[in-house]
Specification:
By secondary structure, the protein is mainly alpha-helical. It has helices at residues 6-14, 20-38, 43-60. It has one domain. The two termini are 22 Å apart.
């Protein structure tokens, strides 16, 4: 079994970015995932929460700063052990 560090895996994925916008999108997702990890949140569950809550925040004109990993209450989001 081969284990890749986050940076090495990202570096391999960046090879497939065929445009500047594609590279920016990959960098954005990578940043969101690594920031969730740095704040002790399981990335999958944080992304699921984020993608579920974001449309409601947009619709209601609420400040999306509350969705940032360091502002999210851990209720319903799995923490990294």
């Amino acid at each position: 079994m081969i284990l890749y560090s986050g940076v090495a895996l990202g570096r391999k994925n960046w090879l497939f970015a065929t445009s500047v916008k594609g590279a920016e999108a990959i960098a954005t997702w990578y940043t969101i995932i690594e920031t969730a990890k740095a704040n002790g949140l399981e990335p999958y569950h944080y992304l699921k929460y984020l993608l579920t809550a974001f449309p409601y925040y947009q619709r209601d004109g609420r400040d999306i700063e509350a969705l940032l990993p360091w502002n999210v209450s851990a209720d319903g989001i799995v923490k990294i052990s």
